[in-house]
Amino acid sequence: MQIVIAATAAYLIARELLGHELPLVAVTVTIVSLGLARDATPRGIVEMVIGINIGIAVAALLVQAFGQGPWQLAVILALTLLVARALSPSAAFAIGAAVQSMLVAVLPAPESGVFARSLDGLVGGAMALLITVLIPRFDLLRERGEAAALFSLLDQALTGLHESLRSGDTAAAELALSRSRRTQPLIEEWTRLLDSARGVAAGSPWLRARRHRLADEARLLAVGDLSTRHVRALARRVEVVVRDGGPRPLLAELIGDTAELVRLVGRSRDDEAARYAARAVAAALASRCSPSAVDGVGEQVVVVLLRPLAFDILVHLGTPPDEARALLPPL
User: Is the domain of 124 the same as that of 147?
Assistant: First the structure.
């Protein structure tokens, strides 16, 4: 719907208002700028439009200077790609510029002059940007489940670590470590989609009511990212600790409480009761994170690694940093 409306509007503006008989560039710029990507945002579209119009301008200048022909086409494409790659690392940026410069290089110049296509490019870009704001892609703002998927995987990893420490099961520790490593793609995908959704919501007058919820999701993503890093470090250390096959019930209890905490944090955005329960569990966990409570350097390292996790979650849940720090036993 975005592409059809924007491309049609760009065509009508360039043809009827500007008097351009064949506004091919206006239409192609609109389509290429919007694309079929799920995460089209105003910022991304602006960057694409800039790249495209750079290609048009470079090609128009070279056509004016050297005319049209096969060697001119080669020179125009080469220079456009060099300029685009120098300005942006994005491959789409360079390709968009090259495609439009190719059209300028091979099509007959319009009666109003070759630079009329630069104006068409601006029209197409403006329509793509306007339509993105007025007709946002609502799938960006739906409940996508990235949070549930991430916290579920963290829960599985911590539950596996609990089992490995309770029974001395090295296979469970290895599986938990493998699960913890699978969290990074979820973090990256969630980050990309949330950035897109916030970009669209920031520019759209229809989505003001969603901005608060997206801000809450951003805070949940931040603590999810921190928790993921802590859980990976814990999984690596636990996998080493349990290699002797001995059970460690006290550490297992602490990790079990951590799994419960992560489950509650995952539900805290939509469940106020879970938020309060998570704060209580995090405070209790923080108060028990004393390395002197366990024997052995490896076990003590596990306890030390739990401290920043409990602290970060407490701060996320609204506990002032000084109060959260005071809950931790002295080292």
Answer: no
pTM of the predicted model, to two decimals?
0.68
Q: How confident is the model at residue 113 (pLDDT cuts 50, 70, 90)?
A: low
Sequence-separated (6 or more) residues with CB below 8 Å from residue 48: 32, 33, 92, 93, 96, 125
Query: What's 14's DSSP letter?
Result: I
Token code pair at residue 97: 């510029």
Domain enclosing residue 275, as ranges = 142-327
**In this structure, are 121 and 154 located in the same domain?**
no
Where is the domain boundary, 135, 154, 177?
Answer: 135
The full 3-state SS of 17-86, as one line of letters, equals HCCCCCCHHHHHHHHHHHCCCCCCCHHHHHHHHHHHHHHHHHHHHHHHHHCCCHHHHHHHHHHHHHHHHH
Which CATH number goes with the domain that contains 190? 1.20.58
Residue-wise pLDDT tens digits, 119-174? 888 898 889 888 877 776 655 545 557 788 899 999 999 999 999 999 988 999 99
